[in-house]
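Posted in: Protein Modeling Q&A

I'm a second-year student putting together a small comparison for a lab meeting, and my supervisor asked me to include a predicted structure for FadR family transcriptional regulator. I've never done this before, so apologies if this is the wrong subforum. The sequence is pasted below exactly as I got it from our records. If anyone can share the structure token output, I'd also love a short note on what stands out.
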Amino acid sequence: MSFNQVKPLKGYELVKEQIKARIDSGELAPGAKLASVVELAATFGVGRSTIREALSALKAIGFVEIRQGGGTYVSAELPKEPPAAGGTALFANAQSIRELLEVRKILETGCASLAARNRTEDDMRSIGDELALMEAHLHDEAKGEEADVRFHLKLAAATHNSLLIQMMESMSQRLHDSMKESRRLWFYGERAEARRLLREHSDIYEAVKARDETAAFEAMMTHLGKVEAVLRKAIADADH
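Accepted answer (user: helix_wrangler)
Welcome! Here is the predicted structure, written out as tokens:
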């Protein structure tokens, strides 16, 4: 008779599971505000960093929303899919997201390079507008995602290649879904801040603005490569 190895849960995972159980049971209803980090730390008898990790994990799988300076709330719309075996439903989707990222690496690095060659001043103002919106909505996940998608679509438009533009527009919904899921994986896997993602987009913008085709290609490859690394980790964790 063989058994699967049992891995002890970390402190933040225990906290996460207890909070999630109360959400699942309806004790914490959609839209309800959770106690502060300080209060939760005292209740659970753990450090504040453990609470923050637990809340970040719950945010990553769609159970809570963390509002900058406004506290943490149960998501108004809870995930419909139950956790998949060996990992969350989010991580179970990682394979399909990775396939789309592989396409994006081929398509969007070319877009960035060609945009650096063909862009106009109007293109740069339009792309810059989306970068400014991403910065203005650093802590508004939905609006940040929308600006992120438009940034990439406007970058494609700056190539002035009608076929590339059509290809990007045809996959715009998939692009939006991919960014939504990969952003969650990024924040969950890296504990990264939105500002780090903003800097990567800024690097792409600056390279295109400088008409540096090589730097634009490399900046886009770096951006997508980092997201792919988080995906690979998520897939590996889900397999164990």
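A couple of things worth pointing out for your meeting: The chain has eleven helices and two strands. Confidence is low (pLDDT under 50) at residues 82-92.
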